[in-house]
Amino acid sequence: MTKKIVLAYSGGLDTSVAIPWLKDKGYDEIIAVCLNVGQPGTDMDFIQKKALEVGASESYAIDAQDEFADKYVAPVIKSNALYEGDYPLVSALSRPLIIDHLVKIAHDHGATAIAHGSTGKGNDQVRFEAAIHALDPDLEIEAPIRDFHWSREEEIDYAKEHNVPVPIGKKSPYSIDCNLWGRANEAGILENPWNQAPDDAWGMSVSPEEAPDEPVFLDLTFEKGLPVAIDGTPMPLATLIKNLNKVAGDNGIGRIDKIENRMVGIKSREVYEAPGAAVIMTAHHELENLTLERDIAHYKPLIEQQITSMIYEAKWITPLFDALMAFVDETQKNVNGVVKMKLYKGNVTAVARKSPNSLYDENLATYTSADSFDQEAAAGFIKLWTLPATVYEQVNHVHSQAKDKVNND
Amino acid sequence: MTKKIVLAYSGGLDTSVAIPWLKDKGYDEIIAVCLNVGQPGTDMDFIQKKALEVGASESYAIDAQDEFADKYVAPVIKSNALYEGDYPLVSALSRPLIIDHLVKIAHDHGATAIAHGSTGKGNDQVRFEAAIHALDPDLEIEAPIRDFHWSREEEIDYAKEHNVPVPIGKKSPYSIDCNLWGRANEAGILENPWNQAPDDAWGMSVSPEEAPDEPVFLDLTFEKGLPVAIDGTPMPLATLIKNLNKVAGDNGIGRIDKIENRMVGIKSREVYEAPGAAVIMTAHHELENLTLERDIAHYKPLIEQQITSMIYEAKWITPLFDALMAFVDETQKNVNGVVKMKLYKGNVTAVARKSPNSLYDENLATYTSADSFDQEAAAGFIKLWTLPATVYEQVNHVHSQAKDKVNND
Amino acid sequence: MTKKIVLAYSGGLDTSVAIPWLKDKGYDEIIAVCLNVGQPGTDMDFIQKKALEVGASESYAIDAQDEFADKYVAPVIKSNALYEGDYPLVSALSRPLIIDHLVKIAHDHGATAIAHGSTGKGNDQVRFEAAIHALDPDLEIEAPIRDFHWSREEEIDYAKEHNVPVPIGKKSPYSIDCNLWGRANEAGILENPWNQAPDDAWGMSVSPEEAPDEPVFLDLTFEKGLPVAIDGTPMPLATLIKNLNKVAGDNGIGRIDKIENRMVGIKSREVYEAPGAAVIMTAHHELENLTLERDIAHYKPLIEQQITSMIYEAKWITPLFDALMAFVDETQKNVNGVVKMKLYKGNVTAVARKSPNSLYDENLATYTSADSFDQEAAAGFIKLWTLPATVYEQVNHVHSQAKDKVNND
Amino acid sequence: MTKKIVLAYSGGLDTSVAIPWLKDKGYDEIIAVCLNVGQPGTDMDFIQKKALEVGASESYAIDAQDEFADKYVAPVIKSNALYEGDYPLVSALSRPLIIDHLVKIAHDHGATAIAHGSTGKGNDQVRFEAAIHALDPDLEIEAPIRDFHWSREEEIDYAKEHNVPVPIGKKSPYSIDCNLWGRANEAGILENPWNQAPDDAWGMSVSPEEAPDEPVFLDLTFEKGLPVAIDGTPMPLATLIKNLNKVAGDNGIGRIDKIENRMVGIKSREVYEAPGAAVIMTAHHELENLTLERDIAHYKPLIEQQITSMIYEAKWITPLFDALMAFVDETQKNVNGVVKMKLYKGNVTAVARKSPNSLYDENLATYTSADSFDQEAAAGFIKLWTLPATVYEQVNHVHSQAKDKVNND
Q: What residues of B are in contact with residue D388 (Cβ under 8 Å)?
């Protein structure tokens, strides 16, 4: 029986070398699959052909940009998902999408295994394999890069022996992953957290210093928690994000430089860029400030933190993630409106906002005579609001001892 | 028996008018108390004298800046307390401090009541009265502004009749509160959330556009979670905050413009400035990224959100707040180190960080050959990490139906 | 214009006296509405007529038992909602249902107000009024009992003057509320928490001592988280609960005696009975143990606690409650199966359980040779699971100082 | 150099066979250590000698009962720690204590490794190894049982070859772990969750049917959240628990039969007994109902759930656990008082409670004329409490559509 495997193929050296390596390991047919999730500068035709040239039996190049935006980025926006408060989850989003396609292709071709190109100390191996287990636990998994145990030189030698083209010039000191939602960069000089990130660490944005001296204003329209138009022009989410990446990146927006906890238990130093995400998520948060009822506004962050952790920690395809998203979707029904954003030299700010579902009521909030708020109600409210702690103090005198002392004098 | 009341006195029209008003209401002696919590441009001598001039029997002016920073701001820093993710809790912090002094003075003088100058639709009335209830529930409370039911004209007439000086010129359209930790501004044109905040709404900072064209770098040193030195120069917390307010305000940093949920149940539009807070809290968060163990890093935000809500919602003097701070203090023991901050035209960024308690281990994180991480362990980890969701899919086929369909073909 | 009001009518003295009292207050027509939510021994015809006799212009008696069970009790079951870990929320459930009917009747009749019979220190006033505000904030609210300020004697005198029948004999020392989900009792001798609840405090159950000497076994079948059959016999939820109330009450099951935090800020001592609830909720929890994936099993209790608080605290008709229930409903899709319950002298125990969606896998769990679990994976798992805390100890030596001391000797 | 290892020794076949096996693996000296943590029927002298007889170079028998109760059980009581709501964490507690002793002994003897007797599919391997990593990550770990890959017959043959005494008669079908806090039992017939637990599965309690026909009452006194006396007689915690195990076990109390989520990712069926724990934890919860301020009472369960998970999941020696316990300890300062417990045929009930720190205030709670609660305050409270959801409905009409429809008719 022909032994077939589906390989998540990027076109780079590692996954190219994996093709002969998997053949050596006994696979008869390697089906290479490359997905376009908006990584810039990717020539999908070239990648598709290269896979065949280095030995793949079949090669797929799939444009999954809209699917990526609508199914994988959208939950992040609705959930204000920022890992450890900072990072809008770039790489973690594409992994379950890639596996979804690979498993379908494996089933179509009767392949019994899937191969991915992750190392053994990062998060992505977990995300790839978690998705495979969830979608078909009978599929075997190959992780050639994790198993190579090769030095760079050995890998190049092996590539040359197997007619795999070797890139000319010095290898980039960085390890980069990119999609339309952002760009992640680590390794090299960044590994010392006291080193400032050098200019060549960035790829989607100029520095605030290099940005124009005049601010850009734009109106972002949301429907049910998702951005649907820029300055009134409707467009698909993927297009909208790419447009914002351009204008926000040009204005020095979206750079993140942080120490982060990986799910495999170590800390790493990461340099991210997500210009469009910075604009969208700032606007979404402020529109929620206007449209979410208070109890939801105060409870949703707990749910958001769980969602964020689960996305980061490879738990996208789980029943808990589904249930959490059912919560979030319910909260977004009335998150409609327009937020005016100002972009200026690294700053992204919501400067005005309006909504047909606005819960801001000028008549309740105002200090003018148009006031409809019942100020008398406040006194009663305060009495009951503070009653439990008041009784506690009366009984236990934790903070009110000073008085007793004075009284005893 | 002489009926005495202690009044939280600001020197402004409202609390000045309150003095004759309280006399009218039957109080024999009004003891005015004004605290300096770092509000800029405050002439404490003038305020102390003015209280006596408009009828107070005694008048205190107390410099509480260090106490404010050390006891009230410090927990905010250690807790990364940002209300609704945005606002570092300016006014909420000074209320319990003010009441703490007022209650002590009431006890010293045998006063039976305390008066504050809050309106009936804001948060501060709750914070004042919650603190009074907690520290001495037997004290009566007067809230003259809440009870006035006067128009501006009626208040001015009453002031004139009672020899209370009336400020010349148009009243500010804004309602402002300020202390060394920041400045809060609301009302006026800000009440329409689609209006952009005009230049005159701001008081502690220049706009990013007006800031210098060259960045400022500074090293902030922390011990046990609190900043103790700038560029190696140690200083008390109050001084450090005021120094940072100056340099960060001059660089356009710390402006916040948001719709917020008040505790009395309405939304309001607020414009805050907290330049020093922006620098300190950004640095503190990044130092925690470097020094907090992962489980703490991921759990502490839940505690922080509760602390933040409780500070905002007038629950400073409660046993739950004490217990939550016991948690936080325990986490800060090893939050020591230096964070290099870049200040540039509204941007405040941590660009480098180091710590004797750093948990970032270059040998574990590196991709070079110095690697001490056991990559083999990952495969076992992934298997057990994903087992529950894998079994769930095997039994319930929520996400893996596609395969079955294909197989059935 | 005729001024009409809809009154939540129970047939008792308080709400009967309310009818003439509301007339005195200027209402032309009082529309009395009594709902049957399963309170035992209620003669709905008698109540309906009595309202007319004491002056109501119209009187409705509505059997709402199925609606109560299906819409208000079902969420409690699916959420394992036990207030403060103990109490399955009896009275809190009927209030929003009652108001839902009253508001509809008010709209049908053009009434402008609703009256309820709660006192000013309990929870129910909040639940009634919260529901009114949510469903129609324009409706005015009358709370005659809260406003009476009458002694018992004055109330009786007023009743006699207005031809309201006065119950013969001594008033019950207790304050009781009852529906098909349970019975709440407070006041009287129970107000001293050191007093044991006397026999006459109970009304739906025998004591464990009085229960039969032989256990009863029954199989409870669940579909999507709700019980649908007893011993294989399908029945509507309301009927199922009432059947279980009988058999479990006869076996001494479902008594709760506790100190509880009321939402108005005081503690009270409550004595509850909920025999059927005890059986259903014990069985549901154990069925979830069998069918919920681990992450859901460990996260859902946080959601449940929030739901429970919100039901207790009058937040049934809120967007957060809807979003939380969207989460819960999503989790219940596969909570199907049968739990064998043993009822014996106060004990209710799940003794066996089975499910088509069982995630218990004998091949994974077994210690026999049929074992399919990969024991090798455990070592890798443990390494990564413990890595963050291990590094923390290596750097900070919080718990591992002993070794260093020994080594230094 | 002599290669030494410290072995966690129980006296049973598995850890006895481990001694020659470790010698075969190259260890020169095996230091056996057995701790008495209250497991009943343990002859510590016999065990100590047996280790030497089967080849250990040294053998320690340590009575750690008080240490176990005071340092490991006490946090469980203060935290109301019940895993998945049911199980008071028996085995999870003794593992870090055992390792603490083993690591000290390893350091004293210059041993470089520690061996434990856990299998590869249970929780205890993780708990043992997590504690070793935390206390000294340089120590190597041996897990002979996990590595044996032997059938029962092969193990017996190996034992006979190496002069390890083989128990006569059939092996127990169960896998049992026991200490003074309770008893855990799994495997055998219990592995089918539809099988009822047979009589021989239990070891610390009679069935409710076999228990006496008369109830037992006892007063349990607490100080700072821990039980210190029974019926007024003070005693150390370990003694108190053992006394309660006897009386509660004799009354059929403390049996738990449940499906549980193991941390290695599988579900298992467990049968526990914890008679003393059932009495103490029921009493502690009710005393907290009386003495905890409401906000603490409602927040602490979230902390408790995290503590419980961390104990179960091998995270005892972590900075997060320390911080969570700092929270809990702060809450227990005023948890003082007496709870009267009734024990009867499997039921354990708090029937009365009193405390010098009681927050139950009869004057606030009463319905009699002694009432000091301000009923007027309620109306104001309700208005502000419900305002956010009311405005939400006014804007979005999620639940109030019925009215509009009616009005449109």
A: 261, 265-266
- Known catalytic residue at B124: yes
D124-158 pLDDT, tens digit each: 999 999 999 999 989 999 999 888 777 788 889 99
8 Å CB contact of C194 and D107: no
**Do C141 and C247 belong to one domain?**
no
Cross-chain Cβ contact A324/C327 below 8 Å: yes
Which residues of B fall within a CB distance of 8 Å from A215?
209
Would you state the pLDDT for residue C407? 42
Domain CATH number, residue D262? 3.90.1260.10
B400 as an active site residue: the answer is no
**What dihedral angle (degrees, nearest 10) is formed by the CA atoms of C292, C294, C299, C305?**
50
Residue C342, pLDDT > 50, answer: yes
Nearest Cβ partner for B318 among A268, A381, A389? A389
Residues C186 and C227 in one domain: yes
Exposed, middle or buried: residue C370 (CB in 10 Å: 0-12, 13-18, 19+)? exposed
Q: Poorest-confidence range of C18-22, C173-177, C197-201? A: C173-177
User: Which chain B residues touch D261 with a CB distance below 8 Å?
Assistant: 388
Give catalytic residues of D, as residue numbers. Answer: 14, 95, 124, 175
CB contact under 8 A, B376 and C380: yes
pLDDT-based confidence at residue C368 (cuts at 50, 70, 90): low
- B221 and B82 in a common domain: no
How confident is the model over B4-16, as pLDDT tens digits? 999 999 999 999 9
Q: Of D134, D161, D188, which closes a domain?
A: D161
- Per-residue pLDDT at C370 exceeds 60: no
Backbone angles phi, psi at C90, to 5 degrees: -80, -70
Let me know whether D62 and D156 are in one domain: yes
Cα–chain center distance at B205: 17
Rounded distance, CA B65 to CA B242, Å? 10
User: Which segments of B are annotated as binding site?
Assistant: 8-16, 87, 117, 119, 123-124, 127, 175, 260, 272
**B369 in a domain, yes or no?**
no
For range C279-299, the mean pLDDT: 97
Structure tokens at C177: 């509320």
Residues contacting residue B117 through CB under 8 Å, at least 6 positions apart: B8, B10, B12, B14, B15, B18, B143, B144, B145
What CATH number is associated with residue C52?
Answer: 3.40.50.620
Active-site residue among A59, A91, A95, A177?
A95
Q: How much is the pLDDT for A383?
A: 82
Beta-carbon count within 10 A of D200 CB: 12
The reported pLDDT for the residue numbered A41 is 75
Catalytic residues of C: 14, 95, 124, 175
**Residue range of the domain that includes D214:** 175-292+335-354
Whether residues A155 and A23 fall in one domain: yes
Whether residue B347 is contained in a domain is answered as yes
Q: Given B57, B91, B95, B255, which residue is catalytic?
A: B95
D403 min Cα distance to partner chain C (Å):
7
Using the beta-carbon criterion (under 8 Å), do D359 and A385 form an inter-chain contact?
no
Local confidence band at C135 (pLDDT 50, 70, 90 cut-offs): very high
- Domain identity same for B241 and B343: yes
SS3 A122: coil
C219 part of a folded domain: yes
Number of Cβ atoms within 10 Å of the Cβ of A217: 13
Residues D217, D246 share a domain: yes
Least confident of B138-142, C149-153, C399-403: C399-403
Say how many domains are in chain C.
3
Task: Give the predicted TM-score (pTM) of the model.
Answer: 0.95
**D13 in the same domain as D48:** yes
Give the sign of the dihedral formed by CA D325, CA D330, CA D335, CA D336. positive
Domain for residue A363, yes or no?
no
Is residue C349 within 8 A of residue D97, CB to CB? The reply is no
